[in-house]
TrEMBL record:
InterPro entries: GLUT, MFS_dom, MFS_sugar_transport-like, MFS_trans_sf, Sugar_transporter_CS
A GO CC term attached to the entry: plasma membrane
GO molecular function term, any single one: D-glucose transmembrane transporter activity
Compartments, as annotated in UniProt: Membrane
A GO BP entry: D-glucose import
Protein name: Uncharacterized protein
Keywords: Membrane, Transmembrane, Transmembrane helix
Main localization (coarse): membrane
Membrane topology, as annotated: Multi-pass membrane protein
Species of origin: Melopsittacus undulatus
Length: 249
């Protein structure tokens, strides 16, 4: 339970906060994306962007995550009270998968706007799951383990930052089988013959979209978890369901 909630909760926040600032020892992600924006603009309009405009677009890409996070936080209280923490987390996983599909296929679509959309949706997801994850984990966990479960959110936040840095390095992708399968899905068999995988100019979009795999894992396993007993009792008036959940614990 801790693992499923953690990797789809604060782990994703740590990953997204870290991955945008770090990819490889040689180049930062900002250089890759700014070059992609410039090339896309040149292909569309036949002119090169001024550095000020390029920097502004990059700033929008970075800040969209914070804007989305603010909206997600403001909406999380209403959503969790009306629909429950479990349903909010499941909905949030769908949002994150859509977001990572935008960032993952932005290079093929030659659209830097898809990165903006993806970052915005990832921010909304972060705002929701940062609140729903901690509340839900505490409400469904046994009393004797409640403190440990709540503290685990900080551990997964730090773990997400570490994973972003590890995946940004070269020659490490083969150690992560799920990541490698996702890369093959996006790029096909030519990936098998590539010496440089994540953390390179050709694979930065895959690095950005890696969190979609984690959201998919949570989307598969979370439906087997019980709904929050306090939500069933206070919001739905389902006393038998609440008692049943407490008995299981």
């Amino acid at each position: 339970m801790i693992m499923v909630l953690g990797i789809g909760g604060t782990h994703l926040s740590g990953f997204q906060m870290s991955v945008i600032n770090y990819t490889s020892p040689s180049l930062f992600l900002s250089q890759y994306i700014q070059k992609f924006i410039n090339e896309t603009w040149l292909e569309r309009y036949g002119s090169v962007l001024q550095q000020e405009t390029l920097t502004l677009l990059w700033s929008f890409i970075v800040s969209m995550y914070c804007v989305g996070g603010m909206i997600g936080c403001l909406c999380s209280g209403f959503l969790t009270a009306k629909y429950g923490k479990k349903k909010c987390l499941l909905f949030n996983d769908v949002v994150l998968i859509i977001a990572t599909l935008n960032t993952g296929f932005s290079r093929r679509a030659k659209s830097f706007e898809m990165i903006l959309i993806g970052r915005f949706l990832e921010g909304i997801g972060a705002g929701i799951h940062l609140n729903a994850h901690i509340q839900y984990a505490g409400e469904i966990s046994p009393k004797r383990l409640r403190g440990f479960v709540n503290v685990s959110s900080s551990v997964f936040l730090a773990l997400g930052k570490a994973v972003a840095r590890i995946l940004g390095l070269r020659y490490l992708c083969y150690s992560f089988s799920t990541c490698f399968l996702f890369i093959c899905l996006l790029y096909g068999r030519e990936v098998l013959f590539s010496q440089d995988l994540l953390g390179t100019e050709d694979m930065w979009n895959v690095l950005l979209s890696f969190s979609g795999l984690v959201a998919l894992i949570q989307l598969v396993f979370l439906p087997f978890f019980p709904e929050s007993p306090p939500y069933l009792l206070l919001q739905k008036g389902d006393k038998p369901g609440c008692l049943k959940g407490n008995i299981k614990r």
